[in-house]
Design a protein that fits this description.
5-stranded mixed sheet; about 35% helix
Length: about 120
C-alpha cells in the first residue's frame, strides 16, 4: 500500500548562478499550497538576485497555487526578479486567464530564465 498518493510538490531548491531555482512538480493546489508557500517564503527572505519558479513538471495549478505565487512575489524588494519558467499548457492557461502572465516574466526554458536581463 502506498503511503503517499501524491509526490512532493517542491521537487528541489537549487542555487544556480545568481538565482535560486524552486522546482515544483505535480499538482499545486489547496492540498499542498502551504508547503510551497513556506519554501518560497524562505527563498524570498534571502532576497536573491532572482527567484525562478520552474513549473515544467506542474500538471495543474488552482487559484490557491496562483495566490501563493503572488504572495511570494510581493515579498521581494525587486518584484521583477520573480520569474516563472517552463509552464505546461494547462498551467500557462491558468496564468493567462488569471492575468498573472502580464505581471510575471514567463520563459519557456529554465536556461532562458537564468540568462534573461532584468
Amino acid at each position: 500500500m502506498t503511503e503517499h498518493l501524491r509526490q512532493p510538490v517542491v521537487a528541489a531548491v537549487e542555487e544556480q548562478d545568481h538565482a535560486v531555482v524552486v522546482r515544483l512538480a505535480g499538482e499545486l493546489d489547496l492540498y499542498n499550497a502551504d508547503e510551497v508557500r513556506e519554501t518560497l517564503d524562505r527563498v524570498c527572505a534571502r532576497d536573491p538576485g532572482r527567484v525562478i519558479v520552474d513549473l515544467a513538471d506542474v500538471s495543474f495549478i488552482d487559484s490557491t497555487g496562483l495566490g501563493v505565487l503572488v504572495e511570494a512575489r510581493s515579498k521581494l524588494t525587486d518584484r521583477k526578479t520573480f520569474i516563472l519558467s517552463g509552464p505546461q499548457p494547462e498551467t500557462r492557461r491558468a496564468l493567462e486567464i488569471s492575468g498573472l502572465a502580464k505581471h510575471m516574466p514567463i520563459f519557456e526554458q529554465l536556461e532562458q530564465a537564468l540568462g534573461a536581463p532584468l
